[in-house]
Amino acid sequence: MLRKIVKIDQEKCDGCALCVPSCAEGAITIVNGKAVLAAENLCDGLGACLGECPQDAITVEEREADEFDEIAVEKHLAAQGKPASVHQHAAPAVHHHAGGGCPGSRAMSFTRPPETAPAPGGSRQSQLAQWPVQLHLVPVTAPYFQGADLLITADCVPVAYAGYHEDFLKGKAVVMGCPKLDDNNFYQQKLTEIFSKSDIKSVTVLKMEVPCCGGIAVAARQALAASGKEIPYKEVTISIQGEVKG
Questions:
Q1: Which of 146, 141, 117, 27 is nearest to 80 (CA)?
Q2: Which of 41, 145, 207, 218 is the most exposed, having the fewest neighbouring CB atoms within 10 Å of its CB?
């Protein structure tokens, strides 16, 4: 099948093995002083190992490869005496979806209990209903995008705006990123895929008032245009003092 899978550049790899423990599926091993995939069906293609490679030898490519197999992962980890990475005994309120076993990247939806008033001095209930949220990590075909109102959030906004959960996040799917520190072209391409492959009902972009933050809105508008879909769209700007500016 055609899918995303890790690619290890043997010329760049120096065999440091820092990538090995970062792979929750145990898909990477060291052979003759080089990191290699133990088997294609053990790699979920999400690339949790990328950031651990000091030589930038690991990338994610899309090619024909064996389908990711969670049962094979369980057997592989068991043979190594390691705990399974998949959530076999997750709480009923959490619904896992396809996309690999890494807890940090695995797509899941939450069922929120009815909200109650917070106790004096207590915290309010989170309105987050999915995982992951980082735009680099979300699967473009995640079930929680289907029929969703999508909130695209610059990642400083929830820190600046105190009412983020109640006023903006509640009832929405969300993706987050920083256009200053990340590749905005990647954001545009990823959002185009999400818009194209999912039935998004509306798009709201939350950005900070600083000029560099406008890049995430540009990426969203370009992605909408590239998807060829007409989806209701609006932008909201938050000041650095946490006020809604429009």
A1: 27
A2: 218
DSSP output for 14-47:
----THHHH-TT--EEEETTEEEES-GGG--SS-
Residues 29-84 pLDDT 10s: 999 889 999 999 999 988 777 766 888 899 989 999 999 998 998 898 888 777 66
Q: Measured on CA atoms in the order 138, 144, 145, 150, is the torsion positive or negative? A: negative
What tokens does 180 get? 């200053």
Using alpha carbons only, what angle is made at residue 140 by residues 106 and 136, rounded to the nearest 5 degrees?
A: 65
If you compute the radius of gyration of the chain from its CA atoms, what whole number of angstroms results?
20
Structure tokens at 47: 């690339």
Residue bearing tokens 């990426």: 219
Name residue 114's amino acid.
P
CATH for 126-238, options being 2.60.220, 1.10.530, 3.40.50, 2.60.40: 3.40.50
Residue whose entry in the numeric block shows the structure tokens 């194209």: 196
Q: Are 86 and 125 in contact (CB under 8 A)?
A: no
Three-class SS of residue 64?
strand
| 0.85 surpassed by pTM | no
In the chain, where does the domain assigned CATH 3.40.50 lie? 126-238
Range 2-79: architecture per CATH: 2-Layer Sandwich (3.30)
Q: H-helix or E-strand containing 228?
A: none
